[in-house]
Amino acid sequence: MCYKIAPIKIEDAKDVFEIEKQLFGSAMLQDIINTLENKTTKYYALKRKEEIIGFFEISIIPPECEIYDIAIKTEYQGHGLSKLLMNEIISICKENACETIFLEVNSINYKAINLYSFYGFEKYSIRKNYYGENDAILMKLLIN
Fold first, then answer.
1. How many Å apart are CA 38 and CA 55, to the nearest integer?
2. Quick one: CA torsion of 94, 39, 106, 99, rounded to 10 degrees?
3. The whole model's pTM is what?
4. Which CATH number fits domain 3-142: 3.20.20.70, 3.30.565.10, 3.40.109.10, 3.40.630.30?
5. What is the pLDDT of residue 22?
């Protein structure tokens, strides 16, 4: 399959909204549009042909980057596509002189925790009951 990663445009916001709604249960279209206008936040889409099948959202304020979201449509999960997005995130961070990538993940999101651990992210703190009964795990990766 041929996949392409490209910055999300305003006209893509509805597709991103639908993916967020499918995966996270809640989303606000206007929030996505507002984020696209923010200079420090970057949204990138993963496309298969012309269909947006995933995306990521990061904030870059060198020397740091924070990952807000990595999402792949349910029907495309389990094929290593999140690794394509992680590789792109790391590349963008290096291009922008970032030294550390931070993120927060729900303690029951084992797929995401495994992905981040695969890339060398390390847990540095926990926010107890941040997601209701679930903790938030704070992780970071030092990059060269």
1. 17
2. 20
3. 0.91
4. 3.40.630.30
5. 87
